[in-house]
Design a protein that fits this description.
With 338 residues, the chain is mainly α. The chain has one domain: MFS general substrate transporter like domains (Growth Hormone, Chain: A, Up-down Bundle), CATH 1.20.1250.20. It is 79% helix and 0% strand. It contains 15 helices and no strands. Helix 1 packs antiparallel against helix 12, helix 8 runs antiparallel to helix 9 and helix 8 runs antiparallel to helix 12. It is a multi-pass membrane protein. Pathway: Glycan biosynthesis; sucrose metabolism. This is Sucrose transport protein SUC4. GO terms for molecular function: symporter activity.
Length: 338
């Protein structure tokens, strides 16, 4: 029964990753299209050129879809308030927990850390390293394409804008691969174990970042910068790297949550609180990367390569720790032996 619950958790997270991929495909396809100012003609004014109008159109589409999804969320969930009879059955529990209800949520969240087992701390550590690897890419992916592959600069010529749109196309391909990987996630985890799959995907992510650094170095030695578009082979290689990164991204979106859910259950802390603890291992690296990536890049002469180098090292380290330190469940081991 326990293994069935674990499998359901992995499948649920895989479906979550799949639907993220569907939304990403549509969103990045929107970003890669440069003709929205013709559809929303009123966004183009004398003080707002085509690029500005495209951005305003994207914001309008955001507002429309947020309104639709908010309405669906409110109306689809048929939640009923507790009746007086059912409420009375919980009076003693509520009184017992009344003192805890007055505590700040963050205090409760951090107080949970002392109950975590060693395996959970390993998962949190790998999650933090994984997101130190992901955030430089997520922050600079389209800028890297426009600046280091197309050789452009913001507000200077069309090379940069063309590169940004090509980067959005690469992210759309990334989301397609993400969706395909989500469908295969459960089979991969059942065959090799969730921790092992997570580790391999992080090493693959590290290799992709290394390829991005190599492409940046190759482009710097070409003579097209500033006056022409990059060779088609370089652009295709960059798009392939973006696409392959969809595999580890799908695993990052699902496997850590499945692992933490199955291991936190025995502690009786609740799934919501366990997700909050896992999110700490995501948000803290995000703050570190957001504050430090700019000065770090400037320290080495600008560009996105220094942050990508840190991302490659962090991703490789997280992959090794996941493979070597995250124990396989008994069900995974039995499948390997059979």
């Amino acid at each position: 029964m326990l293994e069935k619950d674990h499998r359901r958790t992995r499948v649920a997270n895989a479906y979550f990753s799949l639907f993220i991929a569907v939304g990403n495909v549509l969103g990045f396809a929107t970003g890669s299209y440069s003709g929205w100012f013709r559809i929303f003609w009123f966004t183009s004014t004398s003080s707002c050129n085509a690029d500005c109008a495209n951005l305003k159109s994207a914001f309008l589409l955001d507002i429309i879809f947020i309104a639709i999804t908010t309405y669906i969320s409110i109306t689809a969930a048929q939640e009923l308030p507790l009746s007086s009879s059912s409420r009375s059955t919980h009076i003693s529990e509520e009184m017992a927990e009344s003192t805890h209800a007055q505590e700040a949520f963050l205090w409760e969240l951090f107080g949970t850390l002392r109950y975590l087992s060693g395996s959970i701390w390993i998962i949190l550590f790998v999650t933090a390293l994984t997101w130190i690897g992901w955030f430089p890419f997520l922050l600079f992916d389209t800028d890297w394409m426009g600046r280091e592959i197309y050789g452009g600069k913001p507000n200077e010529g069309q090379n940069y804008n063309t590169g940004v749109r090509m980067g959005a196309l690469g992210l759309m391909l990334n989301s397609v691969v993400l969706g395909i990987t989500s469908v295969l996630m459960e089979k991969l985890c059942r065959k090799w174990g969730a921790g092992f799959v997570w580790g391999l995907s992080n090493i693959l992510m590290s290799l992709c970042f290394l390829l991005m650094l190599i492409l940046s170095a190759v482009v710097k030695h070409m003579d097209f910068l500033g006056h022409d578009l990059p060779p088609s082979g370089v652009v295709i290689a960059a798009l392939i790297v973006f696409s392959i990164l969809g595999i580890p991204l799908a695993i990052t979106y699902s496997v850590p949550y499945a692992l933490i859910s199955t291991r936190i259950e025995s502690l009786g802390l609740g799934q919501g609180l366990s997700m909050g603890v896992l999110n700490l291992a995501i948000v803290i690296p995000q703050v570190i990367v957001s504050l430090g990536s700019g000065p770090w890049d400037q320290l080495f002469g600008g560009g996105n390569s220094p942050s990508l180098a840190v991302a490659a090292v962090a991703a490789f380290a997280s992959g090794l720790v996941a493979i070597l330190a995250i124990p396989r469940s008994s069900a995974d081991k039995s499948r390997v032996h059979t």
